[in-house]
Design brief:
Elements: E1 2-6, H1 13-24, E2 28-30, H2 31-40, H3 44-54, H4 61-72, E3 81-84, H5 90-102, E4 109-114, H6 117-133, H7 144-158, H8 160-167, E5 171-175, H9 180-194
Parallel strand pairs: 1-3, 1-4, 2-3, 4-5
The structure holds adenosine-5'-diphosphate.
């Protein structure tokens, strides 16, 4: 099963992706996690991406397209994968479609989590508080300025993906303001129908 989770920062994509990983045994491909790991490892890509990410802006399409294309070729993706945080621009969606076509693969579902924008900043603050309480490290882009920029990037560059995937007939929208279990339930219903 190959699926995309769409939604603004703080919509709950990561939480839902984690549950899908456990239930379906397919990996979560989070471009955010992959880029953060490149930064932590001091790779060439990481060195170039760090300042852009910290400011809440988008890394170039070429860089993330290549990361995803390489990752999809790994053996653990043979049964499928959950894309979280990719595609984030219409150009990335088109690149994804082309790369899957070239690999003889296709998407099973594009699931969008719709969340009131006013709730997002509160969710980010809660994530920061929870991380600190657990003794973890707060993400460099989880601060008011970078978060505002992430939301703006989302509105300008990522929100148009809804119309894109509506046009291809692949989009299903879920109310992301429901509690997490209700969202998980709706996702499972959608996947059962897509099977
Ligand atoms: P969020 O919690 O805001 O959804 P992510 O962890 O998915 O954040 O991504 C963190 C940052 O990594 C983004 O703000 C951006 O700089 C970079 N990034 C992640 N995925 C992409 C992508 N598909 N295209 C461009 N930049 C990306």
């Amino acid at each position: 099963m190959r699926l995309i989770l769409l939604g603004p920062p703080g919509a709950g994509k990561g939480t839902q992706a984690q549950r899908l990983v456990e239930k379906h045994g397919i990996p979560q491909l989070s471009t955010g996690d992959m880029l953060r790991s490149a930064v932590a490892n001091g790779t060439e890509i990481g060195r170039r991406a760090k300042a852009i990410m910290d400011a809440g802006q988008l890394v170039s399409d070429d860089v993330v397209n290549q990361i995803v294309s390489d990752r999809i070729d790994e053996p653990d993706c043979r049964k499928g994968f959950i894309l979280d945080g990719f595609p984030r621009t219409v150009a990335q969606a088109e690149a994804l479609s082309a790369m899957l076509g070239a690999k003889g693969q296709k998407l099973d579902a594009v699931i969008e989590l719709k969340v009131d924008e006013s709730a997002l900043i509160e969710r980010m603050k809660k994530r920061v508080a929870d991380t600190i309480a657990a003794g973890g490290t707060v993400r460099a882009d989880d601060n008011a300025d970078s978060f505002a920029k992430r939301l703006e990037e989302y509105r300008q560059k990522t929100a148009p993906l809804s119309a894109h995937y509506k046009q291809t007939g692949e989009l299903v929208t879920i109310d992301g303001m429901q509690d997490m279990d209700a969202v998980t339930h709706e996702i499972e219903d959608i996947l059962a129908k897509a099977d």
